[in-house]
Batch of 2 targets.
Target 1
Amino acid sequence: MKTEKVKNDPLFHVSKNDNLPRWKAMLIRAGAVLVALVICGIMSVILIKENPFKIYGTMITGAFIDIWTLLKDIAVLLMFGLAVIPAFKMKFWNMGANGQVLIGCLCAIACMKFLAGKVPNVVLIILMVVTSIAASVIWAVIPAIFKAFFGTNETLFTLMMNYIAIGIVAYFSFSWSDGSGTIGLVNYIGSKNYMAGWFPNIGNKYVMIILIALLVDAFMFVYMKYTKHGFETALVGESVNTAKYVGINVKKVIIRTLILSGVICGIMGAMFAGSLEHTVNTSICGSKGFTAILVAWLANFDPLMMLFTTFFVVFLQTGAENVSTVFQLKSTDYSNIVVGIIFFCIIGCEFFIRYKIMPSQRLKDILSGKKTRSAEKKEEA
Amino acid sequence: MLSTLSTILVDAISMGTIFLFGCVGEILTEKAGNLNLGIPGIMCIGALGGSFGVMIYSNGAADPTQMSGFWLVVVSVLFSMLFAGAAGLIYAFLTVTLKANQNVTGLALTTFGVGFMKFFAKRIDMTNFVVASKYFKNLFPFSGKLGWFGEIFLSHGVLVYLAIAVAIFASILLNRTRTGLHLRAVGENPATADAAGINISKYKYIFITLGSAIAGIGGLYYVMDKTNGTTLAEASIDSFGWLAVALVIATMWKPIFAILGSIVFGGLSILAMDLTTLSFSQLKIFDMFPYIITVVVLILTSIFGKKENQPPASLGL
């Protein structure tokens, strides 16, 4: 007689858990961060051979050395994050924030370079903002149109658009430069139109972007939570068929949402050009577009939560950079490792928030020393 | 003219091999329904692991100039696969067992992998690397005597042939075996595959890890063959990783096309350097071409595509 292979029952039953209390979810996340910090601590001790608490101390003090830079970094990352969340809420994976900001920044710099001195400064600044937004919107909407009409995979499309933008910026960096390959600070000291197109400073250089980020954050909070548009976006994300059934024009929603993403990216691009950098190069965005995705996801696409998650991530990055300076690791890459590990732990812990894990009968039987059902079956066979 | 052409072709192949490893690895992963955006990071980790293997083996040898080339290559490839596979395992655990979001996990892995490589690269003792790189290059020393044929087909390093072999193997595995059929079922429609009695988690784990391990060799190839063992800490392997992800789309998830596609992508990357008449800014335009081609393929397949040219249906879910 052919004996059939008896499969063991699983040890755990996993089921969806939608109504975990908020405090419990936060507790699980805090636990994950703790686990990550312990892992990073062990790693740091091995690599640096120092008391881990001393390392964490260096991290905390390091993050707050320059409070304005810290706030600026948070604001910039927040802008990138706010640009991607409406699309994410719709389950449209916009990986292209980097490219969208970059292309906007390039257009704003073009205005600064070629229109300075020809138009009044106020007009120049308005033109910079408008062209930057227009360029970013175009960059964001192209994948959206193809997604809406042909179902083209948006993750891959937006990802590729980043590198096309980088190529265009690299091209103009060379052709506009004086042969050095970098544009340098536009309208800087010594040039004919010194400070043309530079946004005015409120207090200091960083106050403006911080205020703008807060304003956009508040706007997005209201937009996502209390407007019809926001509701439609969320509904398309929940179920395209339901959205169609209640009469929502899904194509329109996709394109409209990506226009919004583009506008936010355009503002960020104009800020890079006019206020923060006064130049454009291929590494101006770094990998902020990607980090922003992680941050937005951590916050569960909630603009208010994002205030905390961006702070947390920027705090970690700045702190870990300080650790590498103080302990002479000769490398800023230490911060990437730390951020990576913490993300792994938090990404992993989400499972325990979204799912309920119950021990199965088999595990209970094993623990209490009883014979399990599958063992009985095996004996029968 | 013929010699210029063959030079370009040889350079294109040697450049394209980096993409080919990453691409075939990513195809296997994506066929299991997982879009692994951690490939750039995994290739970095593979480069580090492979370099670690080269360091251990070459420093362990009594006389590095006399060491066994065969074992050097085997050991370093295995180390490369081990490191990259371990990184893939992290991704598999998070996305399969813990059902985490694939995009987020992949991006986190890329952040981690780039940092991991650059940080530890400074601790790798590269004294014997230039000597060791000779064993990776020029598998057939007699190729120089065979004119253009020898130059185009036989002048490459051992990992180039390995890459092509892996691509052919992957193609046969996907299209001609039961395992491949099951794998495609997992990527297209997991629910049906499950009903048919296929262990989805097992397939996903195996092919994500295997795909990552293969992609990792691409990093090793770049360090030991393409740059002759001179570059590790400064290598921008992650940018090649993104090109590999692009190549997957451009070749419509077919490993055989990937061999040709990698040569085209490689050609576009090096053509700029070979065409000396272009200005510096015009060269930058060439860097964009692979991505533009990818976008065009992506659009065309989504508009006119037959079923078999589409991304796996459950990709990224």
Note: DSSP finds 15 helices and two strands in chain A.
Target 2
Amino acid sequence: MAAAPEEKQTESLERPLLAIDSLTKVYPGGTRALDGVSFAIRRPEVIAVIGSSGAGKSTLIRCINRLVEPTSGSILLGATDIVRLGAKDLRQARRRIGMIFQEFNLVERLTVMENILSGRLGSVSFLASFTRRYPAADVANAYAMLDRVGLAGLHDSRADALSGGQRQRVGIGRALMQNPDLLLVDEPTASLDPKTARQIMRLIRALAEEGATPALVNIHDVALAQGFADRIIGLKAGKVAFDGPVAELTPAVLTDIYGAEDWSQTIRRESEEETSA
Amino acid sequence: MVQRPRADKAAVSAGVQKRYPEVWRRHTPRETVTNWLWVAAVALACAWSVSALDIEWAFFKDAHEQAIDLGQRMWPPRWSYLPSIVAPLVETIHIATLGTAIAVVFSIPLAFLAARNTTANGFTWALGRALLVASRSVNTVIWGLLFVAIPGPGPLAGIAAVAARSVGFLAKLVAEAIEEADRGPIEAIEATGAGTFQTYVVAILPQVMPVLIGTTVYRWDINVRESSVLGFVGAGGIGIYLYASINQFAWQQVLVALLVILVVVIASEAVSAWIRERIS
């Protein structure tokens, strides 16, 4: 773990940042949500995971930090195989993985500051989290983070008093307070209006670039995925149906992932919009 | 039967009115009979109780006269008795408050033990539930009797009795709130690498806080009422004075004690309602 920062710069050509091999998840009911998924992330990039509902996108992301227990396969984060970790080591590994949720999943009755600082829970003692006395450096970073995600001055507001876009900004801040080696993002914009959705995607992309953090983003909106991702992974019935750069996403590929449909209005033409801000 | 939909479709397209039933009943005849059987069973149970209890109906004949007589003996209240029951009255409130406070401290860990989603395993869950039931199934006055036998008579026994009964009450309602807590924030806090107890404190406790405060205040309000009779068994408070006055047939004193208890109960209920209205 101590080697994490160097890893990002030097090992990009040798060991992948994240390597998933033959990942399979069979739910107790017998549903095979993931069926031998393999891919690797070799450099900090934003990867959009697309696919129809039930294709296994959410299961994939939740297997990586083991909110869902994988049935078989391996998930190498740097040199650590997350699938094989015991409870204590898993908590250590989870500190290195930030997660952003569709429903934001903030603790509604706590303040923005408490929610942001909860990203540091893996690094503070029980007593410190009980009394909400975080180290001074964490507090300073939290203020800076609030500033960065555009919530300066709202630190004492309760999370349930914020708008959807603001809540997602808190969610993003909480994940980044972990200083993660990997960002898992589960449908970050599905509960937001189109304009806010674009702002949130732009923010996630910018922060991932600033921290040189690879981000795996589940997303329903294909146009948004093309606008903000470097690479697309298409899941179909628990298998990887497409894995390649955004430019290679053609109507034929979308038909393969989602089924037949007129895709001419969905695929972005590069010149039409700015890519990122 | 298989042909039905096609036949209907043909009928509608031909402009012929569909036939609908003209009579509709909420219950089938069978359900109606079952419902009446239940009513009959309850009536039978009541009849059995009345016959088994051997009630002396003759007492009802002059009940109104007895009531008026008691009222006359109570009136006017002997206000000179008031100063001597102020101290025990305050003691009653203290017993309720301290008993509730102790109960809160013990009920939080017990609630986490008794909630399915936070207990460690089947054994700890069963243990938690057993403690809940044990606490709740014994009346405060019975707890009072038990504790009078242990630390001896006085307010300490009363505090212990109130706490023993309230722990189960609070823990049961908080445990239910824990089981209903939103999964999302819990998942998010687990994903940060937080430990189990950190997750409880940061993601679950804030969610159940309104229930914890609300039921605590409500329980305190109940405890003020229950503490007023704890003196009957020697567990402190105003009850001993009320009991003594009844035994001496000092009905004018009894009325003063009852009026004072009424005022305190109304006040505590008002406080409790006011606080519960405020939490969100």
Note: Residues 44-63+86-258 of chain A form a domain with the Rossmann fold fold (CATH 3.40.50.300).
